[in-house]
């Protein structure tokens, strides 16, 4: 498919916006970029496979959005500003309508963040998308997993468990991921699964305020567990403090909703810790996203959540992700 | 395979050396890197799929080497120094011996170039390896495809067609890629296919000397065609000037050897153009790799090679690569 292949790359390239700091974009042996002085480069790489990280029937525009969103979410969790990245796309067939729809979703999110695609590769094979995304963060201001301090509050953004709830409904046959749901609550959950919002603005605002941060991709317990392990502390979570959307509670009931919020992955909200004296600051940030205090950092190790002791995090529905 | 998955990542991480400019390596939401002042960042991404870019029975240590080599070759073609990169690895099963052998080959080459793995993702699926590699090159000194000038000599490094010759022998059943060949010439070709040498040192030396450069991954005609197209010139190649190894000529005969050298891909030698007044400089560079003048840049468009007019470049043996 070599000729179609080049046409395919051109089709994707034509959609990418041009940043001033890209000296040379797609089309040479490598792209050339001008890193900002005084900044670290943040780099993350995540792969989505069909049938593992999203239902096989998911629409290409939603796949495009999500493939980039999960990577921008990692940059958000570092407090970094997204700048550039690459895409390795494996496709069973190179069909122009599929590519165009994929690009619609991918570049809708890319453009919203001023992020430029600067390279990649397309090969024939089972549908798989690997994005490597770069961000920039001023020296010394990155949010890391290893900075949580005893006494810190534990916070999360948005609501938890919505994506897991949507998957639960999809598995039960109650949710069609390929079309808008009639029910408003159902549609809300569907959007939360297919179109997660990377919390980039919140990540910026947390620089200099939060001591540690992580994005919730594998579930609150699993991801907060990484923070606790790397910081050498214990995370104490109050299960009745977890933010749950009305839609999730209504459609799945309080008990299942709670389970989803504790263990469900794929929400891409931020979980962070901050000293108690920053409480007012945090509430005043007015970031367009709600944040809620859900626990406290204490001495010890591991994550404790009343009623959920000993449970591990959510596995992606195909049981197959490295995080 | 989640627990095995984390063990697998740890297994790979333990093998990666630590560069001083890596502030934070694998293990957080993103790695943090300190770009060198006064340098551009060069970024390339290439995917290898089993059965498409290498024979399915290829040993893991050879797959590891090649997955990185094809990317470092792209950096070499830009005149860039390899620094860091990510690996997205899709594996049918996470078997420790396979991973260890893969890491042997991958890090043998990485360490030789002081290149550090700083992130990645592992998923279950058909064997596929996507590397995104970063290099650094001083401002304004990158070798690009668009700089060839009328009157330039056209040069290539090493010998051409060896990898294509090895694949030809493998297809005919005459070459086992999984073990050393008894015949010295056969073994030479096998190594050329499985363990290509990225010409990083040559790429450095060509900064300020060459006007344009490309690495030969899809075949001389195809890759030189990119240079001609982007530079707005015509490349005139003398087919009897092409450097052919004694092993290739001996095992495949002069005619097939010539075909391989003109159209064969996967050699990962550099092809570059330079003004005639640099001829003595180039021969004096003593780079540990032979270079040979094979043609001239003239006015016009396209690539002309006597006896091969109208032919396109080599397709990877599975007919499925984007370059």
| Low-pLDDT windows of residues of chain A | 312-323
> What's the tally of helices of chain A?
9
Assembly annotation: homodimer
- Average per-residue pLDDT of chain A, rounded, comes to 91
Annotated CATH homologous superfamily of the largest domain in chain A: PurM-like C-terminal domain
Number of domains of chain A: 2
Identify the strand order in the major beta sheet of chain A.
8-10-7-11-9-12
User: What is the percentage of strand-forming residues of chain A?
Assistant: 15-25%
Indicate the percent of residues in helices of chain A: 25-40%
The greatest inter-chain interface is formed by:
A-B, 69 and 69 residues
Largest sheet of chain A: 6 strands, mixed
Distance between the termini of chain A: 33 Å
By secondary-structure content and strand pairing, the structural class of chain A works out as alpha+beta
How many E strands of chain A?
12
Radius of gyration of chain A, CA atoms, in whole angstroms: 20 Å
| General form of chain A | globular
Order of helices and strands of chain A: HEEEHEHEEEHHHEHEHEHEE
Which CATH architecture of the largest domain in chain A would you pick?
A: Alpha-Beta Complex
Which CATH class of the largest domain in chain A?
Alpha Beta
What name is given to the CATH topology of the largest domain in chain A? Phosphoribosyl-aminoimidazole Synthetase, Chain A, domain 2
């Amino acid at each position: 498919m070599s000729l179609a292949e080049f046409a395919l790359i051109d089709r994707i390239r034509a959609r990418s916006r041009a940043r001033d700091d890209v000296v040379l974009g797609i089309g040479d042996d490598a792209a050339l970029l001008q890193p900002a002085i005084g900044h670290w480069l943040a780099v993350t790489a995540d792969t989505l496979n069909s049938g593992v990280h999203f239902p096989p029937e998911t629409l290409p525009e939603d796949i495009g959005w999500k493939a980039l969103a999960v990577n921008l979410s990692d940059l958000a969790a570092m407090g970094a500003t997204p700048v550039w990245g690459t895409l390795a796309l494996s496709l069973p067939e190179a069909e122009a309508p599929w590519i165009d729809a994929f690009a619609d979703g991918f570049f809708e999110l890319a453009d919203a963040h001023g992020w430029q695609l600067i390279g990649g590769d397309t090969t024939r094979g089972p549908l798989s998308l690997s994005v490597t995304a770069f961000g920039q963060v001023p020296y010394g201001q990155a949010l890391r997993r290893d900075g949580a301090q005893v006494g810190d509050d534990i916070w999360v953004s948005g609501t938890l468990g919505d994506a897991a709830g949507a998957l639960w409904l999809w598995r039960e046959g109650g949710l069609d991921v390929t079309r808008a749901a009639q029910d408003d609550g159902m549609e809300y959950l569907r959007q939360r699964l297919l179109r997660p919002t990377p919390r980039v603005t919140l990540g910026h605002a947390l620089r200099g305020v939060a001591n540690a941060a992580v994005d919730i991709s594998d579930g609150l317990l699993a991801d907060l567990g990484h923070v606790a392990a790397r910081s050498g502390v214990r995370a104490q979570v109050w299960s009745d403090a977890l933010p749950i959307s009305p839609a999730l509670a209504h459609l799945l009931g309080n008990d299942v909703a709670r389970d989803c919020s504790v263990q469900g992955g794929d929400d891409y909200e931020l979980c962070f810790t901050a000293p108690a004296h920053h409480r007012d600051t945090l509430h005043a940030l007015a970031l367009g996203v709600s944040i809620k205090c859900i626990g406290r950092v204490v001495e010890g190790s591991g994550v404790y959540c009343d009623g959920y002791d000993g449970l591990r995090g959510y596995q992606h529905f195909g049981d197959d992700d490295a995080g």
